[in-house]
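G., before I forget:
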Amino acid sequence: MDVSMTVNGRPASGKVEGRTLLVHFLRDDLHLTGTHVGCDTSQCGACVVHMDGRPVKACSVLAVEAEGAEILTIEGMANPDGSLSVIQQAFQDHHGLQCGFCTPGMVMSAAALLKDDPHPDERTIRDYLDGNICRCTGYHNIVKAILAASENASIAAQ
Amino acid sequence: MHDFDFVRPQTVSDAVRALATPDAQALSGGQTLLPAMKVRLAAPAVLVSLMHIPDMVFVRADGDVLRVGGATTHAQVAREAAGAYPALASLAARIGDPAVRSRGTIGGSLANNDPSACYPAGVLASNATIVTDRREIGADDFFQGMFTTALEEGEIVVEVRFPIPDAARYEKFIQPASRFPLTAAFVARHSGGARVAITGASESGVFRWHEAEVALTSDFAVQALDGLAVDADGMIADLHGSSAYRAHLAGVMTRRAVAAIV
């Protein structure tokens, strides 16, 4: 089946099987390997991307269901000049990553949260990360990074 | 997962037609079906997506009834029902996690009727009506046991109509790994009486706790439930909790819901 969508602002298309998952289309066909497959059972959140502005687990969405959609992946998060976005910079500043495997999903979930709620409290952040698992158990600094990003004045503009 | 043909109709009638093909299966948000297909618990020949039918996506307050389209996501219900029916919005806001709520739909949840799902409790306690492509089904007739509903082959949940209660509350004791309720209670105070629905507890799926309803209808207060308990017989027992524990939780969640309302 033919599928076409917009990924990180650019048109992307390809031929897929009905059963091809969005995460495999992104990784194997578009070579956007920043989106990770952690569990493949929609538990871990390493594959979170935005689909039409909403966070989804790309391992639990068929590529054909993303036909015509706007997809944003971790590769689309940096600023146009290549510098890190506010959230990414906060993760670096606050050591919000250890092995880094969960980080793309964490950053995409954080971005989805701050888009809806630019100034969440710690409890809200922890609740929102319910579906993102860090097996290094580095949650404390991830939450600190997101809190710090939310205090950055420019976050509301992103 | 096994491969399949995929169709995405834009009208209910086209979807019904597509579902009449042999071995066809409706796909909503896919948050249960796709994981089931990955482990080959399900292997339909044709998947019919219900996610692109504009008539099935809406949240609309219509007098004292809240109408929700069958393909409306949990995230949309959480956002848009908050004014008209806050207890239902709160239930939707606590299903799964944010990414699951972006995809999962009310119609998919009801058609699946997982014995631990949140929505069946809200639908049953609200005395909602499930509108399908061919008829209207009352909540009391819709849920027929674990993963079993009144839906026929190929029948689609087009809309759910919730009579808005005077007051309601959903109390969920979460199983943190699955984010389903270990046991949850939805208590609704209607002008005609109280309704109490328990999910996550029974081997027969969601059920009404009639004794509690009678007590709360005559006196809507926590003390009215004194001495009442859910029978542990027929409750789910697994590594997360015994049947006695779940029966106890059903009582605790109901009392908390009542306490929050009064």
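Chain A has two domains: 2-76, 86-153. The mean pLDDT of chain A is 95.

More on Monday.
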